[in-house]
Amino acid sequence: MQGNIGAVKSTSHVQPKSRHNSMLGDSMNVVGSSMSSYSQNILQTKVAKEIPVQSNSSSLNEDGPRPLRDYLSETPNRLSEELIRCMATIYCKLSDPPLNVLGVPESPSSCTSSSTSLSSLHGMYSDGWSPGCRADLSYEAPLLDPFQVKGKSGSVGAYNSMIEVPWICVDKDRLSYVARMLRDFRSMVEHLEKVDPSQLKHDEKLAFWINIYNALLMHAYLAYGIPRNNLKRMTLLQRAAYKVGGRSINAHTIEQCILGCRSHRPTQWLQNLLLPGSKFKAGDERRSYAIETPEPLVCFALCCGGKSDPAVRVYTAKNVHDELESAKRQFLQASIGFQSDKKVLLPKILEWYSREASISLSSLLDWVSQYLSEKEKETLVKCIRSKPNKSTTHCIEWVSYNFSFRYLFDKELASRFSSRLS
């Protein structure tokens, strides 16, 4: 996938609108059409010109972690994991407003901060991405209600320590701070063309494609801009593609054909109307890329960059099922609420999962109760008893999917960003 900020390939005949020249490739552009008020007034600025990929040297210190080339020579799964870690770090550094970390001087309040303030932070942001780095720094503000659920009486659990990136700033100064990481990211994306996903086992494919999907969409938002409506969002799923094993793979293909998601995910009705089918045609060699059987838990792993989406995390071939179970548990603990004692508010993603997993509505609340606190279980019982002559489904209310842009990152991913500030 050849592109601007990295190497994303446009498979659409509609050329992306751009206010920037090439950053790291030939055809990918940074779009500022939907940037925040922090970024809007400086998007006319040219970004840095193409930075060549240095395949024979490391972007890391000699006495630091292992060189990037070491990761490129390992398994496809390890490569996909590092793609997520690298892009998550880039997002943390481009966060608008900037993230604050305990013990670190406050970064510029927005993209419109003075050049003096930006210059003073050059040392903080200019380091490259380091595979394998760790840190134990913590962030100032816990996420008390990441999904803004009404009547949330219990703890949000692990989501309390997730890191929120509410927007990304792509002005010239901020992009210059991540130029080396973008170069490393491009190196890894280009290496995807050399891997052969057909040789992977089921669990390896599952973890690999979840990571690739999430990294691809983050990369696409950075390069094409954040879509303003569902039609543009759907188009982005088709436009942004990587070359994997020599074949072009876009986000829609990963979601529908490779991972086998059949549920009505965001913009699904538009996809069914305008995009190709959800299965590879006979003779399509990409069929060997698909997982053996669909995994419903993928619903809690794929992130489209919406406020209703689960946090982004790394999935590994060895522990992918445990990691997916953990993602499901943590998401449900943070996203279920109540409206008085009459309605239980359930996230739309759970509805998609229930369809994928063939969980009936009549048994859904009993299934959900295992993820609730004791206080929430009591409230659930009151909801069910509020109308004893009706089925339990009467108290279910599905919360609409919120398409507004936002990324949440698992604490392990954010720790890599912290380490670059320490």
TrEMBL record:
UniProt protein name: DUF547 domain-containing protein
Pfam family, one: DUF547
Region (Disordered): 1-25
Extent of Polar residues compositional bias: 1-15
InterPro entries: DUF547
Domain DUF547 residue range list: 198-332
